[in-house]
Design brief:
single chain; 304 residues; Alpha-D-Glucose-1,6-Bisphosphate, Chain A, domain 4; 10-stranded mixed beta sheet; globular; START domain-containing protein
């Protein structure tokens, strides 16, 4: 009886939280319609190819960073080659596996289906790294008038991210050995459903590949015992674990829109039920996308 009562209370809390997010999202959408264009002159409606290239985020074709990454490998990454080519191959393989599995509707469930954002959750089996934690796939379409560089900066540069992402309480990014493509990241996220806040201590490799015209991102937790993990936990905060996170971003040739694909699997150190995911994830991702787009539109010329 106590267990049943606890579940009912949790469901009620979930529904209240979801309703609050839906109300906030509806207000945001009404204030910033999807058709709104960035405040740039008509002559710049076609994207700037120089911005897309992101020369400061490129690695040489033969650049090997395996030695730099050795201290940062965790228990899931024994077979990963942390070179530019190795990471590109891994990310492409993960998305290729995803395409093959997508045909089996018993494995993936579409949770959010909008023109500019789609979110899927794998029903069972997890990822190749972990078979138990929820595995999430998203695809976001950005306005063709945006440059890829400005989207990348808005998402990954802490000084911009903290301005628009209401769920991020703290965000830090430190280059490893002065390498802007390889960073140590710290992020503290606001707790939901009366849960503790969640903090992530990750490494991140991100770069633009001129040959494929794609921007690649790989991030995951640091290994236990790494010095960067010794920072004390803030009050009412749990240390979550990023098992794997990858992204690919490119400009779609037929209409110029920017496609951002994401795969993510985390251990939030809490029992995440399928019902909770079904209720919370779609609204949360829609809100994230709306806020990001509104920020880029309103601050386009300030993001640099």
């Amino acid at each position: 009886m106590l267990v049943q009562k606890k579940e009912l209370l949790q469901d009620a809390a979930v529904e209240r939280d979801i309703q609050e997010q839906e109300d906030a999202t509806a207000k945001l959408q009404s204030a910033s319609p999807p058709s709104q264009q960035p405040p740039v002159e008509e002559a710049r409606r076609q994207w700037d190819p120089v911005d897309d290239q992101m020369e400061d985020m490129q690695l040489q074709d033969d650049s090997e960073i395996e030695q730099q990454m050795v201290p940062f490998k965790n228990q899931f990454e024994g077979d990963i080659q942390f070179s530019k080519r190795g990471v590109m191959q891994l990310i492409d393989e993960l998305f290729s596996e995803d395409v093959e599995q997508e045909g089996n509707k018993k494995l993936w469930e579409l949770k959010l289906n909008k023109e500019d954002i789609k979110v899927y959750v794998k029903k069972s089996g997890g990822s190749r790294f972990n078979k138990e934690q929820p595995y999430i796939k998203s695809e976001v379409l950005f306005n063709a008038a945006f440059s890829m560089k400005k989207i990348v900066l808005a998402i990954f540069d802490p000084k911009y991210r903290i301005q628009w992402d209401k769920n991020v309480l703290k965000c830090e990014s430190t280059p490893i050995d002065g390498q802007p493509c390889l960073t140590l990241n710290y992020q503290q996220n606001k707790g939901v459903l009366n849960m503790n806040n969640k903090e992530f201590v990750d490494k991140q490799l991100r770069f633009f590949d001129p040959a494929t015209q794609r921007f690649y991102v790989y991030y995951s937790a640091l290994p236990d015992g790494h010095a960067h993990m010794d920072r004390p936990l803030p009050p009412k905060t749990d240390r979550a674990v990023t098992i794997v996170g990858v992204q690919r971003m490119w400009r779609r040739p037929e209409d110029g829109k920017i496609v951002c694909e994401m795969l993510m699997q985390c251990d939030l150190k809490v029992n995440i039920t399928p019902k909770l995911i079904q209720l919370f994830l779609p609204t949360g991702m829609q809100d994230w996308n709306n806020r990001l787009n509104k920020y880029i539109v309103n601050n386009y010329d300030k993001i640099e």
